[in-house]
Amino acid sequence: MARFCAPDRIGPRPFALDLLRSLWRLAGALALMVFRSGGKAVVASPADVLLYCGDQSYYEARFRRIHEGLSGRTVALAGIDRPLLAMTFRWAETWRALASSLWGLPLLLTVSIATGTNLIKGFTRGIVTYGQARRYFAENPARAFLTYEENNSTATVYAAFHDAGGRTYAAFQNGIWYNDEGFDHLRFDHLFSIGQAWIDRHTSLGSRFGEATAIGSLAIGSHRADATLVAPEIDVLVIDQGVPDLGAQHWGAAGASGVSRFLEFVRRFASDHPELRVAYQKRLYSGPARSAEASLDRLLRDAPIEFLDGDGRSAAYRAVARARAVVTMNSTVGLEALAMGRPAVFCNFTGSPDYDVVPGPLQVSRPDYSLFCSRIDAALRGSVGAANIDLDYFISARTAEAPRLIAEALSRSL
To answer: b/e per residue, 18-36, with b = 16+ CB within 10 A?
Structure first.
């Protein structure tokens, strides 16, 4: 419940109003579960391993080599031959969890009022999440489950998987996460992290896991990118992290103002240094998010910046291999660039050290344009890079072995 009920997550509403709103939502959730309780579930054949891949492109970029390493095992692919975790309810399972804990509602209500912490909100979210996940794992049974949605691995999803007969709930780190909702109090049987730094962060924020293995970058492990074999032709490669009107896709702590400042610094730097080839590596935008491309054109207009399209797979890594220096806010691609032998500059404009990636000469720790320029200049001159940090602590040197390490660990768990 801790992920959903902290006082600073209530928002602008008065506490009493927020508490009443949560009680009303609990009643609404019960009504919705009753409404959706009909129908007989179609249960798929049990699998040894269920890989939660999302779609074909993500499977190719992250999961194919793990799948190949699981030869001889029955593997199901969520998002390809199995559905994704859907927002549906199984009334019987959810009611059982709710009925067994309704006795605690008066206690939760009393503690909520006494402490000003809305525990009812967390209770409601936990029950509904359990019902959704319990139904999914009952209809898509597997002995082992591997997800890339590490930050969604709540204790309720973990419990639902095991209650449905699962044995090993595993997740790999799919991005840099911080002291935000979505990274605290998680639960795993096995966590695969890109480096020991993030295992330590999980521990400090209350996550619990049976095992934790630093595997490096699964993306590099799948694509086997080697920048040392490529001659640099881009001076500065900027990694796309969203635009203000869509929200920062990887940077909730900075908010729209932080993203705007970052893009303004990029535009200004490119304009001030026309002698440098500055490229902007875009994400793969589709659907409603396509408007982000128009925003980028508007925010970076009149600056000599080359836009590179993203493909959701290896385009960013090919661009990194061609770059002399990489600039990002907090993208994992920055750490992967260091692992590939390219210097990367990380920009933390929040004013809080909690959001530093690699503190030191690679970090722009405040919204200071002069500091921004000096850090990039040092990267271009080769005076900062992986040698300036304990790289193995942030991204494991075993990155090329990442898919094999995951496949072997899953096989052992069976």
So the answer is: bbeebbeebeebbeebeeb
Domain with 279 in it: what CATH number? 3.40.50.2000
* Domain match, 35 and 77 both: yes
Domain, as residue range, for 14: 2-222+403-413
| 128 and 97 Cβ atoms separated by less than 8 Å | no
Give the global pTM: 0.83
Residue 329 neighbours by CB under 8 Å, 6+ apart: 239, 241, 248, 250, 251, 254, 258, 259, 262, 346, 347, 348, 349
Return the residue matching tokens 């962060």: 201
pLDDT tens for each residue of 24-51: 777 776 666 655 544 556 677 899 999 9
Start-to-end CA distance of the chain, whole Å, equals 30
Q: How many CB atoms lie within 10 A of CB 39?
A: 8
Q: What CATH number corresponds to the domain at position 127?
A: 3.40.50
- Taking the C-alpha atoms of residue 270 and residue 234, their distance in angstroms, rounded to an integer, is 13
Separation between Cα atoms, residue 107 and residue 122, nearest integer Å:
14
- Look at the chain and report how many structural domains it folds into: 2
Residue 105 and residue 121 in one domain: yes
Q: Tell me, yes or no, whether 409 and 329 share the same domain.
A: no
